[in-house]
């Protein structure tokens, strides 16, 4: 079995993230906040991990449409590649625009706009749900008659460019500003300033925004990034699902199907912003925006580094891993991401996630080495850990949250 070269995308993007961070530290630019950076990377890790399972499905989805419904039969030539580029970028524009104008689509795209930073880590804030919706739009390409091989290869190349426009370190780019979506244009798109809202939807070419009236030049004003109503939460699950829950809550309060449909397919601006506050009170009990200690930052930094390394290994050796190995590694990674968000929100139930991670590690060892002695040692470790569960829990809280943490009432969320 061969290595999956797509796995090298992980160190490739991390190199440029590190380079941008180094440059900001050297020049004194405060473009990175610890919690925002970790949250951005966590979302990116989850998206890259789920891509291992779904990317092939997208290809077969395109192939099914092409084989059964293609209107034309387009073959690869230089001019058909140019046409594919233009159509792909145009479809992206309309997907992106509708993702800001329709609640159901905004629910899967909102994660990308939650960060109050704007740097290369923000480009990682893509979810598998967004990838699914995007592919539904791109389904028009095989319907027209572009072969799925062309589409898949081009989408991989096309996906590189947007990474490099998520930065504040690059200024205006002269005549390129008239043709391409530049960092300057994309800073406008990620801004929550009133004059910048719902502008610059293009992915590579800025001509679509100029053609359809959504272009806005970056002015000399201070940009505020993130949502118009900041999320102010680092819970991994809440970041992914809060807007879907807001829609569901609004739908549950609607009195007619017409109102429900208006909520689902209406504009995000028309959804009651107070719904989030009500849901946070019900589902996310406990404090927020707490300052992190040095120990917590170190623990999270190490945990994130391990998660990135595991992600790289999973992506690179995907074709060599058995289904059970892939499942255990993926479960460990996803629980680690939830764990990191819970630590940043100082949720005391995070210890139970640590226990679950231990079970996964031991299960993995058991799968790899099924000798009687190994299974006996695993059973002994579980027995000792379970017997001293509360003692270990107290040490853990004392280390991570402080001396009083072991006796505090556990937060919800």
From TrEMBL:
Compartments reported by the entry? Endomembrane system
Membrane topology per the entry is:
Multi-pass membrane protein
Name where it mostly resides.
membrane
Gene Ontology CC terms:
endomembrane system; membrane
Q: Could you confirm whether the keyword Thylakoid appears in this record?
A: no
Q: Which UniProt keywords apply?
A: Lipid metabolism, Membrane, Oxidoreductase, Transmembrane, Transmembrane helix
Domain of life of the source: Bacteria
Q: Name one GO biological process term.
A: membrane lipid metabolic process
**Molecular function, one GO term:** iron ion binding
The membrane-spanning stretches of this chain are 6-24, 45-66, 78-95, 323-342, 349-367, 373-390
A Pfam short name: FA_hydroxylase
**Where is each Fatty acid hydroxylase domain found?**
81-214
What is the protein's given name? Answer: Sterol desaturase family protein
Name the lineage: Bacteria, Pseudomonadati, Bacteroidota, Chitinophagia, Chitinophagales
């Amino acid at each position: 079995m061969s290595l999956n070269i797509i796995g090298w995308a992980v160190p490739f993007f991390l190199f440029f993230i590190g380079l941008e961070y180094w440059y900001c530290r050297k020049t004194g630019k405060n473009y990175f906040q610890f919690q925002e950076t970790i949250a951005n990377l966590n979302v990116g890790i989850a998206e890259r991990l789920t891509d291992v399972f779904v990317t092939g499905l997208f290809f077969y989805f395109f192939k099914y449409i092409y084989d059964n419904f293609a209107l034309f039969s387009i073959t690869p030539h230089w001019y058909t590649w140019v046409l594919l580029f233009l159509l792909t970028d145009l479809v992206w524009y309309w997907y992106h625009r509708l993702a800001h104008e329709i609640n159901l689509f905004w629910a899967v795209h909102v994660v990308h706009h939650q960060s109050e930073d704007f740097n290369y880590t923000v480009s990682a804030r893509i979810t598998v749900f967004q990838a699914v919706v995007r592919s539904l739009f791109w389904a028009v390409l095989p319907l027209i008659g572009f072969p799925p091989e062309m589409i898949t290869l081009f989408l991989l190349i096309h996906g590189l460019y947007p990474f490099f426009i998520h930065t504040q370190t690059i200024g205006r780019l002269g005549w390129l500003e008239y043709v391409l979506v530049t960092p300057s244009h994309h800073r406008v798109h990620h801004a929550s300033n009133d004059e910048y809202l719902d502008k610059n939807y293009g992915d590579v070419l800025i001509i679509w925004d100029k053609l359809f009236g959504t272009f806005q030049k970056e002015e000399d004003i201070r940009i505020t990034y993130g949502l118009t109503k900041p999320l102010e939460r680092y819970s991994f699950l809440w970041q992914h699902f809060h807007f879907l829950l807001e829609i569901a809550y609004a739908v549950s309060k609607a009195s007619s199907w017409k109102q429900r449909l208006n909520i689902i397919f209406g504009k995000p601006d028309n959804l009651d912003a107070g719904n989030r506050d009500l849901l946070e009170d019900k589902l996310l009990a406990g404090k927020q925006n707490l300052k992190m200690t040095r120990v917590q930052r170190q623990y999270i930094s190490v945990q994130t580094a391990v998660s990135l390394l595991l992600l790289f290994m999973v992506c690179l050796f995907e074709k060599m891993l058995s289904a059970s190995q892939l499942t255990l590694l993926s479960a460990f990674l996803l629980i680690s991401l939830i764990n990191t968000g819970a630590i940043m929100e100082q949720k005391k139930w995070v210890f139970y996630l640590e226990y679950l991670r231990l079970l996964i590690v031991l299960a993995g060892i058991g799968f790899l080495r099924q000798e009687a002695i190994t299974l006996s040692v695993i059973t002994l470790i579980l027995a000792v850990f379970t017997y001293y569960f509360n003692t270990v829990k107290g040490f853990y809280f004392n280390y991570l949250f402080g001396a009083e943490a072991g006796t505090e009432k556990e937060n919800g969320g």
